[in-house]
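Appendix B. Chain record.
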Amino acid sequence: MKPTLTAFAHSPDRGQGLARDMRVRWALEELGVAYDVQLLSFEQMKQPAHLARHPFGQIPTYQAHDRVLFESGAIVLHLAEQYPGLLPVDADARLQAICWMFAALNTVEPPIVERSMAWILEREQPWYAQRLLMLDERVRLRLGQLSTRLGDAAWLAGDFNAGDLLMVSVLLRLHSSGIVGEYPNLAAYLARGTARPAYQRAFAAQRAVFQQSQ
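Structure tokens predicted for this chain:
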């Protein structure tokens, strides 16, 4: 029986690959794991059936047999531990990859999400332009640190792994801002990640949902 991933029936990102089920789709494609997708409306996400899977009424969730997981990072970590390909075999290298998974979601993503939410909720406010300057400064601080650490390397810790998958997913949220382009090595890193065949398959699958809803 194939695992089931829940995703937006009508994603707010309009098929740009930014919804968090994309991270799980990408991981599944990298690992060669076949899966089913259950599409949910915003109303269905707040119903008891889904709240039993995700206490905050969000997506994605992942169900395999009787195991139900929520939170994209936790799901990707579980998959990387269940199947070979997204975590190194060496114990020390494996821990470094896991550190980068947490860094992507806990350190790099928060200022990026705050910036995105400000644009959605606050851009009509008279003080928005000033606030955006502050938010951009916070984002650039993290990108500068990440750029320094990456240097000339292709990936963050050895070969491509789950840490890179999550970091690329996070950086994609800045695509429309142009900020990543200020750091050539990060722009190249982002391009390498999104050029991977598994990413392209995951993106096409998520994009098809948006196109079918039009």
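Further analysis of this model is presented in Appendix C.
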